[in-house]
Every structure is written in C-alpha cells, then in structure tokens.
Amino acid sequence: MEQLVEEYGEYLFHLSYLYVKDRQLAEEITQDVFFTYATKRDDFRGEAALKTYLTRILINRCHDELRKMKRKNVLQFLTPFWSNEKSAEQEVMKQQQFQSLKQAVMGLPIHYREAIILFYYEEFEAWEIADLLGVSQNTVRTRLRRGKDLLRSKLSSQAEVFIHE
Fold this sequence. Notes:
Layout: H1 2-20, H2 23-39, H3 50-72, H4 89-106, H5 110-121, H6 126-133, H7 137-164
Helix pairs in contact: 1-2, 1-3, 2-3, 4-7, 5-7, 6-7
C-alpha cells in the first residue's frame, strides 16, 4: 500500500484538487481513494491499468463531493496550488499568462474542465477519457472542442480588457 501511495499519491491529489479546488478536500478524497482500493482490492479485475482504476475511483468521488457542494451552494474558487515565482520579467509575464489560463480552465463547467484537464494536463487519449467518464469518444471530443472554444472566448475578452486599460 505504501508503494501505491508513493507512486500515485501526488498524481491523485493534484487531479482531485483540479476538480474540487480545495486542498483539504483534495487530501480527503485522495485518502478515500486509497482506502476504497484497500477495502475493495479484490474487485480490481486488472482489465485496465491500476492508475486508470484509481483515477476512475477519484473522479467518481470528486463528482460526489461537487454534487454535495452544489447542494449546499458553497462552491468556492480557490487559488490554484501551483505557483512558481520567477524573478526575470519574461518569467513573470509567462507566469501571469499561465495563471490567466489556469483561472480560465478552472472557471469552465465541470464537463469541459475535466475533459481539458485529462486530455492536456494528464495526457490521456480521448478513448481513455471516454472509458474513465463513461461517455462516448465523440462526447469527449465535443467537450474538448467546446471547452477550447469557451477558453478562447474567455481569454480573448480578458486580452481586450488589458488592451483598453
């Protein structure tokens, strides 16, 4: 079990954080994933990679938490967990652009956000995402396209605000 935590712990934490945007809740979810795997280890048939199986458990758990948060109407957008501060001016500009992109991605509806994150950040293929989410590959491709379109419009409207200021 320690080896699993060592190998997949950080990955699962980061992915859960991208869903719920709350460090403490992401830690809880990550622990729950390992607990669920430990208690239901015999249910894992080995048809998929262990990472895929753990990711599926995590996504289901994140969706459960998001539903709870939506019901309670307390969904908060917290500062993204990764922040590299560089001293060079170019690095600062690059960081600001990266922050804008992250905020735009985090502001997407969950269906688009999860497709974008799994495809671009986690580098899953469309068919793998389809298996993870229980939807068709065409649905994944549509979500990716619509998510990118939303990002384009958000980022271009932000650029117009900066130009006019």
